[in-house]
Structures are given as structure tokens and as C-alpha cells.
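Fig. S4 source data, part A: sequence.
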Amino acid sequence: MGFLASEVITDLHFVVVSGKVTRMNRRQRAGLFALLAVAAVWLLALGGYAVAQHFKVTAEKVRAFVEGTDLDKLPGTARARALRELADMINALSPEERQQARLNRLWAQWFNEMTEDERAAFLDATLPSGFKQMLASFEKLAPERRQKAVDTAIKQLKDLRDATPE
């Protein structure tokens, strides 16, 4: 009694061992199914990881977006969409990458080209809420204390930028 190869493929009750077709017992079938299930889960996990890495926003992707888009040449709706997209990309950066991008002034050219209303909307979209609370408290300080805090912060930022390798 012979078996066709298509029967072996479609019916997992049989297996080819040393050129002979033999029937698998329940334990072998269960082991085969478990092995296939584990392999499928690993393939899904690796695929998901690859997709997540593709869509992850990095400082380099922000740089490419800013350098590849001329804000001055965009009409009103496209300009607003580009600014929202930049804000979304900045918000998606990790805190470390966001700080590094800010120190490298990745979006400084765009910020200089923005109108006052666009700057306000951009800052509202990209500043964390805790930072907004801190600004409100800062505005309540006496003018001398504010100036001293600004001078100290600028000195610290310059020192940090000078200490950071290019």
C-alpha cells in the first residue's frame, strides 16, 4: 500500500522516515504542532519588532524631514500639516534623543521661519505640561530673579553644548 507525497503534506498523521511513510502517534503529532506554534509565535514577534523599529521616530528621521522640506515654499494647509507632523515627530522622540536634538538645534531654521502664531502653536504642541506649569510659576517671579535664572540657564546650556562631542 503506497502513499502519495500530497497525502503526507495534507494529512499530518503520516511522516516520511528513512524514505518510508509511517503513521505518527499522538505524542509526535502534539510535539510537531507545538514546534510549529512556537516557530509561528517567534516569526510574529520578529515581524512585529521589525515593523516597530521601522516606525520608530529618531533624531535622524527628524533631521531628514526638516532638511527635506522647505517650510517657506509650502502653502497654508501644507505648511500647517508639516508643522503638526514635526511636532508629532518631536513628541515621539525619547527624552534623551529629544534633548540631543534640541541641543543640536535640529528645528531652529524652521522655528525662525515660523510666524508668531505658528511658534505659539508649535510650543504648545511640543512642551510637556509640567514645563508649562513651570513657565507659569517663572512668570510670577520678580524680574531680578527671573533675569538671574535666565543667565544661569544660558550659561549651563552653553557649557553643556561645548562639552558635548559633535
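Fig. S4 source data, part B ends here. The two ends are 75 Å apart (CA to CA).
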